[in-house]
Amino acid sequence: MVEGPSPEVVQALVDNHRQFLAFLERRVESRADAEDILQDAFVRGLEKGGQLRDGESAVAWFYRLLRNAVVDHYRRRGAAGRALDRLEAEWADASEPPPDAELFDTICRCVLGLVDTLKPEFALALHRVELDGVAVKDYAHEAGITANAAGVRVHRARQALRDQVTACCGTCATHGCFDCSCGGPAAPTTKHPG
Length: 194
Description:
single chain; disordered C terminus
């Protein structure tokens, strides 16, 4: 069994919470990210606190743990960004031609109407990326968020729209609008990548 930190070490870490948070806030994008990193570091610190070297300051040791956590944060963020870039490149290189105006005229109008029932940031994301054809990274720049956050927002918006279509259209959502009673065109819907 790994020995936990002494009560003195725990108290030193708790006493320096604000300084640790300020240290992280200066090094990451947001307070929320800093709080998440600090929480994870506290958990790791409690698990590994018994590994302090003789005479080593608990605070100095914890700052070293925080520096490593910041590096890991950016490493994970970089990997996610590279994956998003690869996905965008894959979609850009797809052999299918981009949808044209005729395609959108055949999509059931109720689906397009449901976009505006979503949260405003989801509706805007779908309008810009799906309907206007703006790249996710360009939408991210417009919205003032990271490309990773924009990718997550678009994904969640698609999921929310899918849920709305299922709730509104029932089996049409699964099988296509071959016999739609909403007053829109009776043409099958097409699925967008994602």
